[in-house]
Amino acid sequence: MNQYRRLQDLQELEKEETKLKDELNSLPQINKLRQLKKEIEEEQNYLKKEKEKFDLQRKKLKNLENAVSKEREELELLSTKLFSGEISNLKELEGTDTKRKSLEEQIKELEELSLTEMEVIEQNKNRLNELNGKLKVKKETFKVILEDYNELQKGIKAHLEKIPQERTRLESQIDKQIMTDYNDKKSNYANNYVVEIKNQTCQGCHMTVPFQIMKIIKSDHFAKCDKCGRILI
Ligand SMILES: [Zn+2]
After folding, report:
1. The whole model's pTM is what?
2. What is the CATH classification number for the domain harbouring 94?
3. How far does the centroid of ligand 1 lie from the alpha carbon of residue 217, in Å?
4. How far is the CA of 189 from the centre of ligand 1 (A)?
5. Residue 202, class by beta-carbon neighbours within 10 Å (0-12 exposed, 13-18 middle, 19+ buried)?
6. What is the pLDDT of residues 93-104, one digit of tens each?
């Protein structure tokens, strides 16, 4: 095989390299991963805020419960005082009893508030658990897709890594002058600078190749298409 065929191999190798790099940058998982990452971050932020609200609700309940036990202690003291017989003054007795009744009312109110608060907390707890579960599933999906992506990326990279060595091997079999010409001009021909002749026709511009040029190529010499300037093989 002559060096012009090698040049064509080199051209194919470069096309493959471009194709692999494009593939690497447009793996179908990339968009899905980006989308999922965005959703996960948003949901994590939302959950964080909701958790803060939830903690505040629990704190509020704790305060209510503390207030209830404080008032219960006070009530107990009053009741002891009332029934111990240590108060003999009727007015004082009545006053203490009124205070006791009002404390009982307050305790009842606070306990009702606590109950409502407990219900809210229970509901929010379930809601947070549900959201956490959904987020967990999403994270798992992300992980699976990421593994797929990494696997594909690894395969393409392994393929790409072999290219420089192959390029060096091919270049070593091609004249320097031809290589320089190839590197200078290939981009003008959209990396289709080396073309075959089929039925005496240049496969680059599809014009007939004159007999003189055909003769040169048949004798394994370097020739270009006289119409489009491509290297003919
Ligand atoms: Zn041509």
Report:
1. 0.69
2. 1.10.287.1490
3. 14
4. 11
5. buried
6. 899 889 999 999
